[in-house]
Specification:
Helix content is about 25%, strand content about 20%. The protein has about 450 residues and is of the alpha/beta class. The chain folds into 2 domains: about 350 residues, Glycosidases (TIM Barrel), CATH 3.20.20.80; about 100 residues, Immunoglobulin-like (Sandwich). The chain is globular and about 70 Å long.
Amino acid sequence: MNMKLKRREFLIASMGAFLSSSISIPGGAAESGEGSRFPLRVSDNRRYLVDAKQRPFFVIGDTPWFLQKLPLEDVRLIMDDRQAKGFNTLFLEILDDSHLPSIDAYGNVAFKPELDITKPVEAYWRYADTVMEEAARRGFFVIMSNLWYGAGNGLWMHHVTPESASVYGRFLAARYARFPNLMWMHCGDRNPDERLAECARRLARAAREAAPHHLQTAHLSHEYASAACFAQDDWLDVNMAYTYGASYVHVIPEYRRTDPIRPVLLGETGYEDEPNAIELLPDARKGDLWNPYRIRRNAYWAALSGACGYCAGTRLWRFESNWRDALNAESTRQAPWLAKFMESGPWWRLIPDLEHQLVTAGFGTWKQADYVTAARSDDGVFALVYLPSPRTITVDLDRLQGPVAARWFDPTSGQSRPVEASSIPQKGKHDFTPPAKNGAGEGDWGLILEAV
């Protein structure tokens, strides 16, 4: 371990201890209970995140993005709803990614002049603070975009230089260091050119210097993960995957990266009722809309391909006139069941079944919609399988320790159905066939295998 890394880990540990004991969120935010889980850090094997008590943290996020567009009562409504549904993470933006200049619900502009990121307007940032405080009160981990470069013709990318990024970065880092529940996200829907990459690095360095307890990641163009541009940058803690294709095709190569190993997070995929390049899926065509099944499938595919979490999305982020209806989109009701599925055992010990040693037959075809993903714990006491469509699969029980108990998991309801124990041999290969349909009338199922 080099001295720079040792120093950084010492600073993180020291800052984490300080924050756990002394953080004070204005307005009476809780300083114990759920809030005490922060700051998060990367696990020792660099495959997942752990909280301040070393407990593995599986990310289940929602993406309301620019919440400051709404007044405080609506912000609270959304956060309460997401907390009740079982989300533990929010993807947010400190600046609007759809409109210049950035203006909050109360008419406050972020900067004056409006596009000069070195000239913050205090009223705007006080409300941004308030939104973060509301998230902290509810125990949310917040993945925050600091400057959205933008796809296509771009957005804030036209109004940042390395010099201004340094000034803005120091401002953000100093202002938000008091929040232990924060991870910064750089770029935004774009693979940066040399100038923009340097701007992201200036922001990252400022955050690392002022708040070493804050994790950092990058959001690039879809079909590219963070490491595509920043693989060798020491500030990059989490490798964020972003795909509208079959997620396992994207996530597995990122999981296999060893330059260095980083946790992989499926930070973005299709949003319910949006088209989002859906033609990249093997069973869709341009103009189709993402539905709960395709979204759910990408989430489970990713988790069993090595991702340490998943973030859901709907049209909510647009805050159209009927945005309250989007709060109950089916995909967001189903998303937290993924955590229940993963947490049925020591998910952090799972290793993807990339060579089909666990599921030896019936695993479908690579890059197709029928492909089965599976993972087995390194000690052989636990395994998970996801079947995107009904069929019989063959499992090699010799890959697990001792007699095996099995149950089918319905990803649309979170309910389980045990497999008759007497039908499962103690060793050798065994065929498993799921129930005909899940609670949504569709054919995808999870299989939970546990050594008893």
